[in-house]
């Protein structure tokens, strides 16, 4: 799981990728040069300010993340199978269309956007055509088997591509009117992509690549139609109005490596090493000024527990055996103050402190030995159930902004949870009154402290 950090900490919340297609002001130096040919014109544009670069940043990051997680896709699915093995909800079949429905609902209600309904439809149909050609060309060439084994057309995810095409359509038409439309559209697209994973219909790289295809397809669709009309929209006056208060409010997707600073099951005698896992989640904050705001996060972290090797000397030559404990998983949420400082228009530093609760998944404990006569040579001996516990978190981050709407953030968080774990042993132990009394009332108080190092895809609004 440690390789997951190389995915650039990114899974899909591009909610607030602001429209950058503003009406350009005239360049004074260029105007003067029209009068005097002796004055040279400097037309050099910084690389990250080039329009095609700004439009390709998010898709490029998503395609990179898809490639980086390809080798870990089965391990990531095992996390889903462990914690949500029976999840089945078909909301993703319908939610993928919600942003496009919102566009036409707003236009029919008289809310003015970038284009009138005819040109918007032409741009949308062009985007869908590009997306459909790209997705289906890859699907039936790559022939990747779906995680549920149903078909060989898993990569890339068509649902995710459709959802992000529609979200980008809403962003293009109404993002400059109010960034809330972009936030809503990309949130719906992200939930759609997540649903494809939870329903075991797609691997993580499938939805990452699908999201990138959806975004770039819409960009290309609008590019071609804008060229045909020779301008960037029917309602050009809207393009000069950029909403926002210049405060660093944001929404972000994060992913990173989690490093234990304590032995999580020390009191339970089930591990003797600090654990290494991964963390993923959502984070956001609303700033009341350029320095101070209030934010919250929701994150999931998982830590595989390394098996313990033991030797049983009972006179019967039982020999070596292993104690295997299923991984520990924590679903945490917290809220608290955020502080931000901008070194420049490109670099931003932030601090935070949050408090909340963490719910911990239950798990099982096994004994494994060649002497155990089962197909897996394993014997379940107990299950554990942690209680929900208080969690506090402190963190720092450094963001590089590709443009005012989106940036890549390196973050470091410290988390502390005091967890109470109760162990319930197997029926065979319950049949022995002495062992049942001794073992089935075991409660351990564990300190769960860990540091997370990772990356966020941060969208500002």
From TrEMBL:
Domain called Phosphatidic acid phosphatase type 2/haloperoxidase: residue spans: 122-222
InterPro entries: PAP2/HPO (IPR000326), PAP2/HPO_sf (IPR036938)
Protein name as it appears in the record: PAP2 family protein
Organism for this UniProt entry: Chryseobacterium rhizosphaerae
